[in-house]
Amino acid sequence: MATAAISGQSDLLKMEDAAFVLEQVTLEDSSDDDFDYDAVAVEDDVSDSETEENFGQALRSLNEETITESQVVQVPPTNITKQPEVVEDFLRNFLVKYRLSQTLETFETEWYRYLHTGKIKPAELAPVPDVYQQNLALNQRVAALEEALGTRQAALSESSSTYATLLKERDYHKMHHKRVAQEKGKLMSDLKKLKKHFENYEPALRQLRHKYEAAMKEKMLARLERDRLAARLEALGHQVDSGPQQPQQPQQQQRDGEAAREAWPPATRRTVGADGRARGHVTISDPDDIHNRGPAHPDDSTWPLEMRVNPYSAAALKAAEVHTFRANNTIKAHTVAVAGLALHPTKQLLATVSDDHMWKMWTIPTGELIMTGEGHTDWVGDCDFHPGGGHLATGSGDSTVKVWDFAKAACTTTFVGHTQAVWGVNFHDCGDFLASCSMDHTAKVWDLHSGRCRQTLRGHADSVNCVQFQPCTNNIVTCSGDKTVSLWDGRSGLCAQTFYGHYNSCTSVSFNMRGDVIASSDADGVVRLWDVRMVEEMACINFGRHSANRVAFDPSGSILAVASNDGTVKLWDAAAQSHMSAFGGHEDAVQSVMFSRDGSMLLSASSDTTVRIWSK
Questions:
Q1: pLDDT range class, residue 255, cuts 50, 70, 90
Q2: Which residue would you say has higher pLDDT here, 597 or 130?
Q3: Considering Cα of 372, then 374, then 379, then 383, what sign does the dihedral take?
Q4: Nearest CA to 29 among 124, 110, 89?
């Protein structure tokens, strides 16, 4: 019994914090069983005080065997499988918890006796669930769920606030969208009204355009008639000053007048006085031309008459045989990009200009260097030979135009007037005037005799990129970064016609030798042909997505060469209205291209510092 008491007491100490379930148990009378009990001798000298003393010593010995923390060996955690509590342990723990020691002793006595007799079979005993552990796990889970619920509620509160803010913003944007939609509808309605209103004006605009074109044609015809009458008047004055003659028939007089007029070249025409001596340039040869009258510099040159015969107008020139051309020579012209080319009017000489601030003159087709000019302080963009062949004009990024004399091997004239870089230069066929164009949105006409600016052509809204005189006339054509091509009267400085059609900056413009067709190129690689007499577009040619830097006609005007930014020279057959094969070989963009005067050669200048000569 002492052993049972000690075991019960220890179980009581271990399980005093555990949970128990109270069950009613009926104890049967075991007097009828067949168990044979042996009598246990009772020692008379064992008293209750000794029993209590032994129990206390046992408790003290258990306490002394407690292992200190320093003696605990750290072992790695292992997975422990918890076994369900059996029935007898559950009952024993319950009796120990409520200190039912006598009932516990009786229970253990009868329990072990039934186990030995076989009345109770351990295999048939069901385990008792650990309700306390289950309740503890459930409580922990409930606490975790409550914590998660609190977190979710806080997030929900914040989300509700954000949702309310988004609703306000949505309502604001919805209102703003409605307002924009209303404004859009109003604008669309106004556009429809304006379009309808414009359609009402379209017939009137078309009629006014036709009237304007007719007026321009009449103006040109009137100018031709005026020049014809002025030439006739000059011839009659010459006849009167030369002495009395026999009366002539009207037809004979007209023929004599025309013969006299043709006898004086435009570049050297003078007015002859009664003494038979030629007067100076200050005498006005055209009495109807107010721009040649009035205050003028005494050294100013006189503009030639408009009615002059173009030697190429009736000439039947053969088209250049470009299909037989090949690269015959390559000239390493400069150390940097070659920007422009010019051919001597009578000799086989070529002038080149470059970004290295110099111009050079070469023999062609051999490519021998014979002269170099230095004087500009910035890149040189273009050059042109004087019709007499003794001078060269150059335009530079230093805003100046220089005229170089080959006989003196020096620069003889520097024109200063442009405020920005000069892109192009071109001589008049009489040799007395030089035109230049600049990034300052203007083109200027310079008088070589007086050394001053005679006209400033204003009207373009962007850089003027190219300029050229119309052959055997006083008209000037320009192209600009404002996507337009303009035709000017060089004597008055007024714009006679503007051609519209390009969708990007115009890069180059050129007349054919007859002077009745203009070719213009733009940065989109598009070239347009314009009829000067009819004042209308003749053709639109797309040479690809690369910029067309320069255009040039062959002498017959039937072949068009285009310097392309892709390093090739593209060709167009104007007679057949078709593309021809392109010349490739340059390693960089082709900046300039031109035909020789007889059409036997094609020359191209490139940013790869070379000039290529294409011929048979």
A1: very low
A2: 597
A3: negative
A4: 110
According to DSSP H, which parts of 65-100 are helical?
87-97
Strands (E), 514-599: 517-522, 526-531, 536-542, 548-553, 559-564, 568-573, 578-584, 590-595
CA distance linking residue 359 with residue 275, whole number of Å: 47
Per-residue DSSP letter, 249: -
How is residue 128 annotated by DSSP? Answer: B
C-alpha span between 598 and 556 (Å, rounded): 9
> Which is it for the CA torsion 240, 244, 247, 253, positive or negative?
negative
Confidence of residue 317 (pLDDT cuts 50, 70, 90): confident
Cβ(486)–Cβ(498) below 8 Å: yes
Are 469 and 387 within 8 A, CB to CB?
no
Residue found under tokens 């392109």: 582
User: Chain centroid to CA 616: how far?
Assistant: 42
Q: Which amino acid is at 114?
A: Y
Does the pLDDT value for residue 493 go beyond 80? yes
Q: What is the DSSP string of 19-56?
A: -------PPPPGGGS---PPPPPPPTT--HHHHHHHHH
